Amino acid sequence: MKINNLVLQTITKVIVFLILLYSVDLFFAGHYTPGGGFIGGLMASGAIVLLLITYDIKFVKKIFPINFIYVTAIGLLISTLTGMIAVLFNKPFLTHFFNKHAHLPLLGETSLHTAALFDLGVFLVVVGVTMTIIQTIGEDD
Amino acid sequence: MSILHWVVLSPFLYTLLIPIAYKLMKKVHTGWFVLPLPILLFIYFCSNIGATSNLQAKTESIAWIPSLGIDFSVKLDGLGMLFSLLISGIGALVILYSIYYLDKNKEKINQFYVYLLLFMGAMLGVVLSDNLIALYMFWEITSISSFLLIGFWNNRSNSRYGAIKSMAITVFGGLSLLAGIILLYIMTGSFTISEIITIVQQESIISHPLFILAMICILLGAFTKSAQFPFHIWLPDAMEAPTPVSSYLHSATMVKAGIYLVARLSPVFAVSGYWIWIVSLVGIITLLYGSFFAVKQVDLKGLLAYSTISQLGMIMSLLGIGAAGAHYNNDSVYYVATAAAVFHLVNHATFKGSLFMMVGIVDHETGTRDIRRLGGLMKIMPITFAIALIGSLSMAGIPPFNGFLSKEMFFASMLNIREFNMFQLDTWGVLLPIIAWIGSIFTFVYSMILVFKTFTGRYQPEKLSTKPHEAPMGMLISPIVLVSLVLVFGLFPGLLANTILSPAITSIYGGGVYDLHIYHWHGFEPELFMTIGVIVFGTILYLTVRKWAVIYQSIPVIWNSIYDKLFGETENLFSRMTNRYMTGSLRTYLFYIFTFFILILSYTLFAKDGFTIDTLRLAPIGGYEVVLSLVLVVSAISILFSKSRLTSIILLGAVGYTVSLFYVVFRAPDLALTQLVIETVSVALFLLCFYHLPRNARKKESIPFKLSNAVISVLVGLVIMLIAIASYSTKLFDSISQYYVENTYLKAAGENMVNVILVDFRGFDTLFEIAVLSIAAIGIYSMITLRMGGKKNENK
Q1: What are the structural domain ranges in chain A?
Q2: What is the domain range of residue B769?
Q3: Cα A126 from Cα A30, distance rounded (Å)
Q4: What is the ipTM metric for this complex?
Q5: Chain A residues with CB inside 8 Å of B758's CB?
């Protein structure tokens, strides 16, 4: 049933990186323009799904030798712990902190926000969940 | 977060380090790593005795869910101090003992210590929380950790049975406690214990219609936890746990949580005569029942379990009498009874803790706990014998040990109740002192059985699997410390009286400093004769136990069979019910879900008169909308007529993409993006799933089946449409969107409102959503991998 689809495979090799980069861009853009952890995560899993369709599940496993269940768990942990930061400072759970004009080496002036950390957790959970589902169903033969 | 908060949370945080310690230091018993924590906690509590004995309670609070009146508030007062010292002190001794009891190479000690610390933190939380909801949360964690510890040797079916039984009974009580707490909140408007007590002092709630119900619910929680009759049945089965656990949870601390709760809430409920009657009667019946059936036991731990039941009943009944004293403003009765209760609480923890450890040593060294196989161990295990003798004599109430002192105070309180009208001769109240006395005789009998059947008599080496010898020193340290306390508290009760006991008493009802004196010699008072009577009749009964023990055969014990029947029947009923509707067919499930959906929503919509059509604020329909709607409708309808699955999936994708174009038209870029990506990923998922389905095309279905499906799908669409129209036409409240427009940049420093709502304003929603997603992923993962495992087994 395997078809040697040269055009698709060649395009995929290039485009996967573009989609992944775009997903990172979407993730960081989230706070000011459309995007965010959820969309970014879905976009990243979309890229992996594209790989999966063009090649096969073994190929994907070779490139990403990760157990995606762990990715889910780590994401959930990051989000929860971000919420706990506020508790340490006697604020209600999930209160965010931000600095609109932080100076970082190399990056220059940028804004920092704990919401980004929280969103990183969301990103990882979304990638982890979609990939876990697709992998388990795909491997089930 | 104050120090006191960290104290409560420290055992929980410490559990995180245990796996690391276990992995990195294989050669060292993990117990040595755990031991410093309870010792530090004990030292911390000791350093605060000065403050609590001057009646200065330490209160700290942090907001948890302030909008619901739920705070994580902790309060260290006299009663909390007494329990905290027990939890940390006995905890340290038990952990030391467990290091020698549990083999680090054979047992899963990393799990054991995680459960134990979980319990320790939860128990500290129960006794230090000033907020009932926090208390309830910790209360349930103690039940769960107790379940895990009873089932520690989960390859044994008895362990599993005992664990489930204790869980079923204590969680039933826990839920009823939650109901009681909520009822109390309805009556007083507060979850904070200290506030509730002030509120009921100003305005009595006894005439409130919910008062009795709340009281019964809370008492159910306390009685199940403290193994009061007839909920005591879980405690003997809990003896399947490793002995350090029995000694810690099931005699010294957890089973006293119910007593703590009754003491703590006495000021709220003692205005009611029912409270006094129920607490003292249930307590005294438990005392008699437990001590009577302890004599029958042949398993040493079973004997101690029934003995614990009976002693808990005794403390409970004392609290009932104390409540009566408070009810009639009779200070002397109140103080004597409550002092006896808290004093016996400490004494019981010392002598019963040491006895459990002693039994653990006997079990460890001889390989059995069966009285019929033991005997004559006195010469082989002299130190253990000494521990058993002191502990048992204290339990039996023999001078000069501490059990004698609290037993005398117990008799005194039981005699005191003659002063009250409600316990006059013409009521059943006169029975209380008599039952108490009979119960104490049996207590004496089983104490003697415990020590003399094990250590004296004929040595039967042929019945033992191993050759017994004295336990290693490390194992003996903890029980020796405890029996030394038995002796010290017995000889110098003044050490405890005004430092720990009196503050504990006054912290229950408030009031000034109470000067407590505990005497060995009261003069020739009735309680002295009662003690002498106990010793005389107890000795006679012990010596003739073989002759009268036959009566146990004629007494039917129904409580366990009631539990088994109830549990088994419920299980049967529900598995039959589940099998009836869980057919395994997705179509049937969708049928249930959609039918229910239609019924509930359409009923609510019309019964609540929620349907309106408002055509005033409609936007004009443009060219894009018309085209998109047409594409949407056409692709949706063509799904119905497509012959192959692949076409169906692609058409379904077309529907989704068209919807996302709608979002673009209505200027919602975030939604459009999300919808686009979701659509892509889900089409891929569909393809994957369909790859696994049988290759044949759609089956021919019968006409009625198709018809009912058609009706349901049309109705679902209709209901959704009606709700959409109604929700657009009804504006009951001002829209919240203006708030977000104004505050997104000011309060959250973001410019994309949708994302700021997701991660900040409604961050909780997102957190729970990703939690649900993870659960779904784990569900799918385990379902598929488990099924694969099942297949493999079938192939074999």
Answers
A1: 6-139
A2: 736-796
A3: 15
A4: 0.90
A5: 36, 38, 122
